[in-house]
Amino acid sequence: MTASTPTHTFVLVPGAWLGAWSWYPVARQLTERGYPTLALTMPGLAYDGSPAGLRLADAVNHVVSEVESRDLTDVVLVGHSWGGYPITGAAHRLADRVAKVIYFAAAVPEQGRPMIDENEQYAAVIRQAIAASPHGTVPADLEAVEGVLMPGDPAPIQKLVSELLLPQPGGYMTDSLDVPPVTKIGLDAAFVQCADDIALALPAAELAARLGVEPTVIPGNHMTLLTEPAVVADALISALASRQ
Description:
This protein has a single domain, classed as Alpha/Beta hydrolase fold, catalytic domain (Rossmann fold), CATH 3.40.50. The protein is an alpha/beta fold. Helix 1 (24-32) packs across helix 10, helix 2 (56-69) packs across helix 3 (84-93) and helix 5 (142-149) packs across helix 6. It is built from 10 helices and 8 strands. The model has no long low-confidence stretch (mean pLDDT 96). The chain starts with 8 loop residues before the first strand and ends with a helix.
């Protein structure tokens, strides 16, 4: 291994309704630049099991297990959207293995506060969906993709993404983490904001402030990881190289 060969491993965690597939275009970019990369699907968000009864702890445990089972070190944990929750919980348990935590258009959890309580409008929709679902899940449809996740993107891409979405386990949205922001335990963190993102429950600057950092702004909407993966990969590599 030469001195210029990347030694960090990117571990990419998707947002609500998404699987590892949502990170694949970025993972390819990172891999082609020499970075080992692992994209994860959280429990309940694939066709290999039921989403019923899953809690936020199950997602955190999954991230921890995947990192530990591979004996990964110098890990860069990256969470998109809701994925900020499992990477935060996992970072506390993997602190000696983590080099950086990057929140990409992501929630930065406040200790003891679940995602459902971050936005009153979102909370009403989520509670209604959980109550109406036999599995206690929260679905997303084409309307959500067109109006919130990917506004302005080509219709065929919006339709394809909507058909790939799976219902989010409700416990992932209603559970909280009893841990402080990762910077409070000495971990290095960064926040990457997409300029046209309207999907976050709170303003990006407010979320980044929980980490004590300023957001880095790139073009695009909430799903830029699919439409401009090279731009996102550049931002992640730049974030890794910088110290906040």
